[in-house]
Design a protein that fits this description.
The chain is mainly alpha-helical. Helix content is 80%, strand content 3%. It starts with a helix and ends with a strand. 57% of the residues are buried.
Length: 400
């Protein structure tokens, strides 16, 4: 059983990792606004440079999870922090598109480590309040996405776009070194805790995973497309409200994702108290009309609608993770979560290309949000097919 100091340190570094991955995989969406002016290149061309990095966040998730089974989560987390930090610093020193493409790809490769490694690492130390722990951890992920906009905007306006890459990169490196020292001193371990399992037939398990494959992919497309486009959407549709600098855009993005972080805690509590299936369905259902409304919204109404749609999207995550953990055999959790994040983040490059294609051809984002509304409707139709989530079916605790 994990000792308490080690468990607390695990929670701290897992939460810091969640913050930093979302910061370092989202800050480019604001930085690109400054690059448009500095490099005199069109938005759709520059945003496309993140495509390969976004692909790596998904494609490298499964091998990262499998490698973690061999070397342990703490070692992989050290690699995550230091590798992502070095690549971020490199991106800030780029002198052209090729350099930037390579460093952004590196960010994606090392960022792929966090979710299949850091989330199960947290769950193994969460005891019986898994939903609460996942919700709390989710706050840090949302804070990362929120701080990406405000941090990038602040450094762009006060220094330049290079500082927006370099400073977060250095923070990642320092955090990785700190974790390394904790590991060497035995203050962070990888001792597993007990976990709940549900007795279920192979057919029901295959049915659940088949349904979740659809819902997770659609949710990934919605999340990644929204995260990619939102800074530009704000800059275009509410320019008079936020001024000419990047900081105003960053503040609005921070507001949206900060609110989403609070919702993850609420979603986690609800998933602990109510059947996860219905919490999951409710969160997906809310997204359908909200995404459609976002297609034509502007001004303050756009900020409200964008906040609610992101809140609904990320509020589903604790329930989704609990469904995965409940139906998967304990010895397959690493594999299952690795597959989840291959799928969820594998949607990233498709989302970037979707945003680039629609914005490049139409010059606006109306049809992007219409398409995302249809994705949410498809996810809702699939989620309704999930089996009844009777909590009495959770029958045993198995020491992992």
């Amino acid at each position: 059983m994990t000792n308490q100091p080690s468990s607390r340190a695990t929670v701290v570094f897992s939460c810091l990792g969640h913050l930093l991955i979302h910061l370092c995989t989202a800050f480019y969406f604001v930085i690109v606004l400054a690059l448009e002016k500095d490099w005199s290149l069109p938005y759709h061309e520059l945003i496309g440079l993140w495509t390969l990095g976004a692909l790596m966040v998904g494609a490298a998730a499964l091998p990262a999870g499998m490698l973690s089974d061999r070397v342990g989560a703490p070692v992989m987390m050290v690699m995550f922090f230091i590798g992502m930090g070095v690549c971020s610093v490199g991106a800030g020193l780029s002198e052209g598109k090729v350099d930037l493409l390579l460093w952004l790809t590196g960010i994606g490769i090392f960022a792929a480590i966090y979710h299949p490694v850091g989330i199960p690492w947290l769950v193994r130390n969460a005891g019986d309040a898994k939903g609460k722990a996942l919700g709390f951890n989710g706050i840090f992920g949302s804070l990362g996405a929120a701080s990406a906009g405000i941090t990038a905007g602040l450094f762009i306006d006060l220094v330049n776009w290079r500082a927006a890459f370099v400073v977060p990169g250095l923070i990642c490196v320092v955090t990785g070194i700190a974790l390394w020292l904790f590991v060497l001193r035995g203050r962070v371990t990888d001792a597993p805790a007990s976990t709940e399992v549900r007795k279920t037939s192979g057919r029901e398990m295959a049915r659940v995973f088949g349904i979740l494959l659809v819902t997770m992919f659609m949710a990934g497309m919605i999340f990644n497309s929204t995260q990619t486009a939102l800074p530009k959407v704000f800059a275009v549709r509410i320019d008079g409200f936020i001024g000419d600098g990047a900081l105003g855009v960053g503040l609005l993005v921070a507001l949206v994702y900060g609110a989403a972080g609070v919702m993850q805690v609420i979603g986690g509590h609800m998933a602990d108290r109510f059947p996860a299936k219905y919490v999951y369905i409710a969160a997906i259902c809310l997204q359908v009309p909200l995404l459609f409304l976002a297609a034509g919204a502007g001004g303050f109404a756009l900020v409200v609608v964008a906040t609610l749609m992101v809140v609904a999207n990320v509020g589903a995550l604790p329930a989704e993770n609990m469904l995965l953990a409940r139906y998967a055999p304990p010895h397959r959790h690493g594999l299952v979560f690795g597959l989840k994040f291959v799928l969820a983040f594998g949607a990233g490059p498709l989302a970037v290309q979707l945003v680039s294609l629609i914005q490049g051809r139409t010059g606006e984002f109306y049809w992007l949000f219409v398409a995302l509304s249809l994705f949410a409707a498809s996810a809702l139709a699939a989620a309704l097919l999930l089996p009844a989530d009777r909590m009495e079916a959770v029958v045993s605790k198995v020491s992992a």
